[in-house]
Amino acid sequence: MPVINDRLRFSVEAAPAAELVDQISSWLAVPADKVDQDLGEDRGLILSAVHRLNDRAADDPDARHQQQLLLARIYALLTALPDGATAEGSVIVYEVTRLLEGATIRSEDGWIDPAVYDVMPGPGQPFLSWLKGTARRHRVFKHPYYADFINHHADSDDLRTYVMQESLVDGRFDDLLAMMQVGTSGTAKMEIAANFWDEMGNGNPAEVHTHLFNKIYDVFDISAEEMESAMTASDLLAGNLAVLLCRYRHLYPEAVGFLGMTEWLVPDRFQNVVRAWERLGLPDVGITYHRLHITIDSQHAAGWFHNIVLPASESAYMRRGIARGVLWRLNSSARHLDERLALARRRTPAVR
Fold first, then answer.
1. Is 210 left (phi over 0), alpha (psi -120 to 50) or beta?
2. Is residue 317 a contact partner of residue 257, using CB atoms and an 8 Å limit?
3. Is the dihedral of CA 182, 316, 138, 272 positive or negative?
4. pLDDT above 70 for 286
5. Per residue in 41-83, pLDDT tens?
6. Alpha-carbon Rg of the chain, whole angstroms?
7. Which string of DSSP letters, residue by residue, matches 131-156?
8. What is the pLDDT of residues 186-220, one digit of tens each?
9. Maximum CA pair distance of the chain?
């Protein structure tokens, strides 16, 4: 069992971001009661250190990466079955989590002009049309990372990197649906359930979508150890936002907007991935997931909008939350794809 080292325990006070995150991460494999017992006296120091990490993350790319890495490691406690003791349920880990989540929420809200909520139309079709129009007018719509780079220029190494970057959302979409449906009812619950059952391969284990997605790892020989080291702050943020919105009931409206927009954008994006895969002549088994989702996510998005968004739009509270989730998805995805495209251009200067 990992031991909380007394000599290192207080180093959180002035530790560099990476050391702080590694130290807190080491507690995650310690039983919750032991974490709280051994670190209770240091709670103030720990929380102050996380506050400083959040402050630095606003302007320091390395601190931002470490902030999102720590949140992703904590979220792994909620989205994976352990093979031993964990700190799940620790009061101190919970408080650290809430600080990280709060900073992440404030950051995403900072990318939204509050005036947008004043121009939202009322319930029903006008609201849905406004959401789709907002997406079509956003610079992330048909982003050149997909429409140009992936479609025409990406090589197998680029697709290998792309798969790893997408894994934190695509690789666990079924679990996200399972989390967000808690407490729902009526057409919303049925739509989420139908979506989930499709993700489950309609009962065929060989066609479970996460299983199909994992086939891509086999094509590229991607290990679990390599996955985390390959993640940028934007990669981690994409996965963290999805878990954050799906795990809390008060953020259910935002989850509706975030996941609905994710599915609505998928078909056009995945068409470019399939074209690149076929252009490169890569093994057919690795692209089944993307081919399926070109059609399935188009159907899912239509059902999501009709059976979840339209009924929910009767509530002003739901409209605001759904819009917020949509904007989080559009804005974070735009920054993410900007980063990917810039990195691709540095690797391949001829790509412009």
1. alpha
2. no
3. positive
4. yes
5. 999 999 999 999 999 999 999 999 999 999 999 999 988 899 9
6. 21
7. HHHHHHHSTTTT-HIIIIIIIII--H
8. 999 999 999 999 989 999 998 888 888 888 888 88
9. 61
Compute the average pLDDT of residues 80-88: 93
Say how far apart CA 234 and CA 238 lie, in whole Å.
6
Q: Residues, the chain, total? A: 352
Tell me which residue has tokens 């050149």: 144
**Torsion sign, CA atoms 313, 318, 322, 323:** positive
Torsion angle of alpha carbons 61, 259, 169, 236, nearest 10°? 10
pLDDT of amino acid 293:
86
Output the six-digit token pair for 219: 């094509």
pLDDT > 90 fraction of the chain, expressed in percent and rounded:
73
- Structure tokens, 209: 């979508």
Q: Give Cα separations from 269 to 140, 273, 347 (angstroms).
A: 11, 7, 22
Q: Which of 277, 167, 172, 176 is nearest to 232 (CA)?
A: 167
pLDDT at position 26 over 90:
yes
Question: What local confidence, expressed as pLDDT, does residue 349 receive?
Answer: 62
DSSP class per residue in 2-58: ----HHHHGGGGT--HHHHHHHHHHGGGS-HHHHHHHHGGGHHHHHHHHHHHHHHHT
User: Token match 């949140």: residue?
Assistant: 71
Does the pTM of the predicted model rise above 0.90? yes
Are the CB atoms for 260 and 328 separated by under 8 Å?
no
